[in-house]
From TrEMBL:
It comes from Upupa epops (Eurasian hoopoe). It is a multi-pass membrane protein. The gene is Nkain4. The chain crosses the membrane at residues 34-55, 62-86, 152-171. Residues 1-21 form the signal peptide. Its main location: membrane. This is Sodium/potassium-transporting ATPase subunit beta-1-interacting protein. Pfam families: NKAIN (PF05640). GO terms for cellular component: plasma membrane.
Length: 221
């Protein structure tokens, strides 16, 4: 298969998905988003499996990757609904942190143009610590950044699914055609050791000589 085929395109898509997943994993770690961290980790493993299957011509691995892309699209749709507060979901909840911390997305405090506004804690004397109040000046609200991340993941996952199905069909056709000509038969029928016709005729001539000489004498003549 050439470099401009679906196989090479799928390799490129898997590499792109790995880069996007690693970038997302870093910011989810910074925001202590444990549910996305686990999902990203599993996603990275499956994409590597699909990349290996594409390079090594293993259609079963690509099938696993294709099934996972459907799951991954569903997960990212849920993330979009979570941050857009669709269906009773709230972006302020601790669902993505498994209710073990009150952290939010890293982009909520470090988005483009965001400035943290802090003030001294009231009611506590002799304490120089500060309490976080709010974030102002954000050029883009953090939930829209998360939605864009998930939308990009959905886009490349859908394209990857289409190319995965195409590559699997191509690999399957190649295997079927190769098996049809005896490629997987260790002892094909056309490899049967048959003696040539002229050799059989020569042997018959040696043992059945019309002159009455022995077969060896007739051969020497």
């Amino acid at each position: 298969m050439g470099c401009c085929t679906g196989r090479c395109t799928l390799i490129f898509l898997c590499a792109l998905q790995l880069l996007a997943a690693l970038e997302r994993q870093v910011f989810d770690f910074l925001g202590y988003q444990w549910a996305p961290i686990l999902a990203n980790f599993l996603h990275i493993i499956i994409v590597i499996l699909g990349l290996f299957g594409t390079i090594q011509y293993r259609p079963r691995y690509i099938v696993v990757y294709a099934i996972w892309t459907a799951v991954w699209v569903t997960w990212n749709i849920f993330i979009i609904c979570f941050y857009l507060e669709v269906g009773g979901l709230s972006k302020e909840s601790e669902l993505l942190t498994f209710n073990i911390s009150r952290h939010q997305s890293w982009w909520s405090e470090n988005g483009p143009g965001c400035v943290k506004k802090e003030a001294s804690m009231s009611g506590i004397k002799g304490l120089d610590s500060h309490s976080y109040i709010s974030v102002i000046g954000c050029a883009l609200e953090y939930r829209y950044i998360e939605v864009m991340h998930s939308s990009f993941q959905i886009l490349i996952a859908l394209v990857g699914f289409v190319y995965a199905c195409y590559v699997v069909s191509v690999f399957t056709e190649e295997e079927d055609s190769f098996d049809f000509i005896g490629g997987f038969d260790p002892f094909p029928l056309y490899h049967v050791n048959e003696k040539p016709t002229n050799l059989l005729f020569k042997q018959t001539y040696l043992f059945v000589s019309p002159t009455g000489l022995s077969g060896m004498e007739e051969a020497n003549k």
